[in-house]
Input
Amino acid sequence: MAKSFCLLLCFLVLFHGSLGRQQPSRQQKECSISRLKAQRPSRTIRSEAGVTEVFDHNSQDLQCAGVAFVRYTIEPNGMLLPSYVNAPQLMYCVQGRGLQGIMITGCAETFQSFQESQQGQQQEQQEQEGQEEQEEQQGQQGERQQGQQGEQQGQQGQQGQQGQQFRGDQHQKIRDLEEGDVMVVPVGTGHFIFNNGGRRLVVVSVLDTSNDDNQLDVQPRRFYLAGNAQNEFQQQGQGQEQQGQEGREQQGSEGQQQQQQGEGNNIFSGFDAERLAEAFNVDVQIIRKLQGQKDRRGNIVRVEGGLQAVLPPRRQQEQQDPLYASGNGYEETICTMRLRQSIGDPRRADVYTPGGGHRTSVTGYDLSILRNTVRLSAHKGQLNQNAVMLPYYNVNAHSIIYVIRGSARIQVVQQNGENVFNAEVQQGQVLVVPQNFASIIKARDSGFEYVAFKTHENAMINTLAGNLSLLRAMPLQVISSAFQLSNNQARQLKHNRQESVIAAQGSSRSQY
Output
């Protein structure tokens, strides 16, 4: 009996220990902040069809939050080249519309041009019928000669069948992207973005370099799969870009092999061209294009004539696609997982105050990939003219605020009561509000529209004023004793503000 109990105890200890190891965590960063700063991009990279703007990830604020921040502006018919990074990404579409491709290894190519494949099969049948007629007409030339010709024609028919079979296209799912959408890109997952709209597409991205899925250091690293793009996360002020270009020029004069390995800047550029040609079973000239040699377009390139991909209505395609009906279980979980959600529609707001504004969130309860893998969340807020976001603090996450439109005055206070930020933030700026630092936001005359990225999949706030605040939860006697107030004053402090999160301009006090 004692032996059985000991075995059971050991099993429970091992089981709970394994659960503890399986739970993802964030790398802790030192946050000795005495002053916060609203940031603008510190580096701008211009490409053929757009602009990449990088915020200084070495700044004290972003390092405390353990994230990097980038903004992409893509011209119509422009495409952000395929790449992957060493950290999960949470992206928000600020303006425009487009298409996003996310390539997940092992998932089926569920977008297929069936009509072109059917046309190819009909052409193959006609060619086979023509070959049979030719064989009958050549039957008088002898049995041996006829057999040889039949074998050659059979090989040609197989080659033609292969060519006709792939005359169309098939690829993984491409997702629509429009203003107000939040997109999730898991760590190490390849993705691209194409602007198929009539105006510029603006997308901001947060890279969670402190996520446990990043087994490297907290330095963000982007691995481009194509082109010869500049390194957007290079160390500031060290001139590595210029040195890299000079080094590549020197390599070009040292031999053909070094030229092939040194001119590009994507993940294929460092490999030997002959080995890649063998791996892909293609000509070396194709590999040199793959390696981005002599490509000066940058990381956002123009797609002449638009993106020619299989883009039928999504619901109709999923009904027609036989692979959706015959999945092996992997496709039904990972490959069909939702990676996008709109938080731009006011009708889906979690918080709404007439005349004041609204706020809409996406958390791990909305997208399971946030809960299981990425461990980030976001909310989009809008404050009308002179409206106020009541004093609050983030319970379990840092907050990275990006100003979409308008302006507001924000105050942030740390644990010792010191004001670490008291200034106006404007369109295009980024402000980091650390965990538990209290803040209050008041919109200007132009209103205030923003998106806040949170470093927890189910980020929560506690308000300090309003009908859901900490003071509302306290007994009157506690309030009057803590703040040295009369009972009547304590009652006013507790009940005069009836809104929960957002207060409209000139909203009257509610007498208790």
Residues 359 and 470 are 20 Å apart (CA to CA). The first strand starts at residue 43 and ends at 47. DSSP finds 14 helices and 25 strands in the chain. The chain has a mean pLDDT of 81.
